[in-house]
């Protein structure tokens, strides 16, 4: 516990998160501690924290709260602004679920609201009211979050951006659809940054991450004494926080059915009535929503209101998944430039071919984390090669190889023209025998995993 106390003292002004995969270990010497700036940038971690995060300190320096724990740091602040905040259940970048809490989080009156200005980057969250002005680096990253920057050469994306440019500032609701990880919030932020409201707040609300019992008070606000545990002076709610700016409702398909009627009323009347209040407050917001669900199917199953759907879908655009895009090379170049901290990284041609053939089920979220890890592993080489890629990604690649198990013809070695063909045939048959398991195949053949990958992807 002495180490944890020293760590807390060393980062007294930072946001300190205690976490562990078992909730009963919170508050003990087994818990991990990580510290972050109010903007979400990683600062340091205790020894237990480093062990649980599974990354060296040098790699963690490139991460943010969002990339490590899967939620924006502003959502953490929002959680601790509720009446009775308990431990949070978060998901590490590795997929491990942990329980977390902030023991001494300071929340000044105007600090840590879930609002963002046009100086916000895609991974960082707003700083406190007393924080220093954004750095030039942060401002440059914010300027990149625009529709022009997102147009990287894919025809489908170009069509989406062209449509959006025509409706921005026209008081038309926008509904963004697409798979998880396709960049829906980034697009919503770009819409705000290119709109006449860019000087106003950008308020993002993930409807799936707020418990159903809290979402009404979080969205609409509440008066003091509105319910048991309500904090003094109440809360204005997310909709009123966005007044004069943009409101982004992510995962709108997860909004409880009983609240959909209230939201529709607010959108139609442009008035918000906080819980426990008899006074309606005028509100003026530009609305953007996003979902990865089929709302029409939900309407048919009485899970989503049709009148709200037709109010939200002024313009519906679909972001294509990464596997359908034709601009992967440009996207990777931009990622490398943005994450390289001034160091120029490249991708080996064979690895780029591998990337083009991959399905990318996690889309940009998967690609971004993969590239961050690969850049750290590459170190001073500055060229990302197969040995710099995580084993789980290589296993995924191996399972997508058509010859990795099911389509190996009964071709004899005498029919093969070269030694390379013989080697490839043996590897394919061994992969088939081991159900595509690369590690087991490598052990059976007495070679390394990298040799298997190199032979499959010459």
Could you give the topology of this structure?
Elements: H1 2-10, E1 15-20, E2 32-36, E3 42-45, H2 47-53, H3 57-60, H4 65-69, H5 73-80, E4 88-91, E5 97-101, H6 136-144, H7 147-150, H8 155-167, E6 174-177, H9 184-193, E7 202-206, H10 212-220, H11 237-241, E8 246-250, H12 257-269, E9 271-272, E10 281-282, E11 286-291, H13 295-300, H14 306-312, E12 315-318, H15 328-339, E13 346-347, H16 349-357, H17 363-378, E14 383-384, H18 391-399, H19 419-433, H20 438-445, H21 449-456
Parallel strand pairs: 6-11, 6-12, 7-8, 8-11, 13-14
Antiparallel strand pairs: 1-2, 1-5, 2-3, 4-5, 9-10
What can be said about this structure in brief?
The chain is α/β, with parallel strands linked by helices.
Numbering strands along the chain, what is their spatial order in the largest sheet? 3-2-1-5-4
- Radius of gyration in whole Å, from Cα? 25 Å
What is the overall pLDDT average? 79
Number of strands: 14
User: How many distinct helices?
Assistant: 21
- Considering DSSP H and I runs of 4 or more, what fraction of the residues is helical? 40-55%
Taken as a percent bin, the fraction of beta residues is 5-15%
Termini separation comes to 52 Å
| Shape-level CATH architecture of the largest domain | 3-Layer(aba) Sandwich
Structural class: alpha/beta
Structural domains: how many? 3
